[in-house]
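Section: protein folds

Sequence with per-residue tokens
===
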Amino acid sequence: MAPSLPNIPELALETLQEIIETLQQHESVTLVGSSLGGFYATWLANHYDLPYVLVNPSVEPYITLERAIGQGVNFHDSSRYEWNAQHTASLLKFKVAQPPTKRCLLMVQTGDELLDYRQAVTHYSAAKQMVEEGGHHGFAGFDKHLKTITDFLQA
């Protein structure tokens, strides 16, 4: 499941918490997050003690998303939205200084044009890591790693 989320961080995490809490009543929950979703997945994994996979995650979106202030376009439905300084600053509330790494797989590509992969490698240094040369922010060849991801999450 990859829900379309509100662009307001508090609402996005509220939505994700509702989904997790509903699903946990019937099945185990695991997380996969990329970019800002990786930041959210870290907070959720810490809050709910869940296994998680991060794909080119944003470690400090409260800094890196300052360059995104203004109008944006939703990847899923092409709707337009406003990203403002308050949204960026609100992300600080969800910072996890020492992320849980025992049940974390970090996947990064060195060619990520938006985020410095080394920041994630350092921040999640105790996690299982897969660092690939080249690639891009969208993680080139992601589909080749689906078995690795499912094997990790099922362990």
Notes: The chain has one domain: 9-61+95-154.
